[in-house]
Amino acid sequence: MLEAVPAGLYIGGQWRPSETGNTFPVHDPATGRELAVVADATVADGAAALDAAAAAQKGWARTAPRERAELLRAAFDAVLTRADDFALLMTLEMGKPLAEARGEVTYGAEFLRWFSEEAVRVSGRYAAAPDGKTRLLVHKRPVGPCLFITPWNFPLAMATRKIAPAIAAGCTMVVKPATLTPLTTLLLVQVLEQVGLPPGVLNVIPTSRAGLVTAPLITDPRLRKLSFTGSTEVGRRLLADSAQQVLRTSMELGGNAPFLVFADADVDAAVEGAIVAKLRNMGEACTAANRFIVHESVADEFATKLAARMRSLVVGPGSEEDSQLGPLIDQESRDKVHNLVQDAAANGATIVTGGQPVPGNGYFYAPTVLTGVSADARILHEEIFGPVAPITTFRDEEHAVEVANSTEYGLVAYVYTRDTARTLRMSEELETGMLGINVGVVSNPAAPFGGVKQSGLGREGGFEGIDEYLETRYVGVADPYA
Ligand code: NAP
What we know:
Blueprint (H helix, E strand, L loop, with lengths): L8 E3 L2 E3 L6 E5 L6 E6 L3 H19 L3 H17 L1 H12 L3 H21 L6 E4 L5 E9 L3 E4 L7 H13 L3 E4 L5 H13 L7 E3 L5 H9 L6 E5 L2 H11 L5 E5 L4 E5 L5 H13 L9 E7 L3 H13 L19 H16 L3 E4 L14 E4 L16 E7 L2 H9 L6 E5 L3 H10 L4 E4 L18 E2 L6 H4 L2 E9 L4
Parallel strand pairs: 7-8, 7-10, 8-9, 10-11, 12-13, 12-17, 13-16, 15-16, 17-18
Antiparallel strand pairs: 1-2, 3-4, 5-6, 6-20, 11-19, 14-15
Helix pairs in contact: 1-7, 2-4, 2-5, 3-4, 3-6, 4-5, 9-10
Bound molecules: NADP nicotinamide-adenine-dinucleotide phosphate.
NADP nicotinamide-adenine-dinucleotide phosphate binds next to α7 and α8.
């Protein structure tokens, strides 16, 4: 299957090597084995990709919305036809268990279907001005050529969440996938090519020098939009670069999600929700529950039951069907997770289960529960990006909200309670873009995904998702009766 995955750059409808012929390797995090080598785009390749996107923009914007919709719908069908290939490829290059990779194929493909449906629903308005002297015509135009920079943790979904609405809106694009996981994006691009996406609309430049290759594109006046998913640190830098030409930006950045369990919660349901919110993608998700904030009356029960569930999980290579938890993406990530655990323990936390890397090949880390974590432990302030659940306690609702909001991040929060009025208070008080009530996962292509505070700007998915790729144009028209 790997032999069938393209390994080149895709520019102006052509697969080709990089200008220098250089490549970089892609590895399997479960074994460290090299999977493939991929063309390594240079600054000149990046410029060629933007040339192609800019040249295609005018013609693409003029295509019928129905034509763009049908292309997206055909891509949705084609991705599902090749679901097993996509799932295996993601498991190989990223590490997630096959069952989760299949889930991502469904989730990622759904953006193609959702935006095929939205492509034909873009509308405007016509109205008389209040004084009756002019007419107001408001319509939507594609933003223009976009640059997409995507992370390694959800290689398919993070790509389709940007590519699908851009195609629907009539934008052309240059995509720079993560160096650790470019293969899934390359297979997706091949599928889009096969269903008839015209040359130049989508161009892909894997590169091992992300900053060097993308910086000139961000300051190129032909680029009209940057959409980035990744860390807050890199996002801040890209926002600063984007300020030079006041580029439109969407920023899907890091998170530090609180997971609140109130005294009236169904604790068993909260534990099941915690397993999903914490361990989906081995904890390597921006939406991963990072801080478990539990009412003091149920904290012991919650910790004991969560630790028991964590201990029961099968840790192993994602490609083995019975694996429930795969490896972390690389050695550096695993070291970071372990350092956070050691820092918490040194500051008084109790390791209820786990707390160690798993010996042997690959970057596996034992699912871990920590209790008695002190408020200033680093693990409560940094993205863990690993299978570690630090538990702290709260006294009352006001205290819970104060602790939950005490972070510069604001992507998502999870709340377990059976009190309806409290769920509404939480939806008003918690400073996040998204909130899960008695659920451990909120991501849905039909819903607006995104954060507040330093978790980002803009929304992906839902009715809002296509707006990120549209400009509003107002036309004032003289009184037709004058
Ligand atoms: P990252 O290090 O910020 O990298 C993300 C992407 O940016 C990669 O393609 C990377 O290329 C590229 N990049 C790095 N430095 C760059 C620079 N100076 N200029 C231009 N591009 C640059 O993040 P990551 O480690 O891949 O992903 C994990 C982070 O993403 C976490 O913080 C997570 O919370 C966040 N995330 C957020 C969302 C969301 O929707 N809010 C979703 C998923 C992930 P290389 O691969 O070559 O380094």
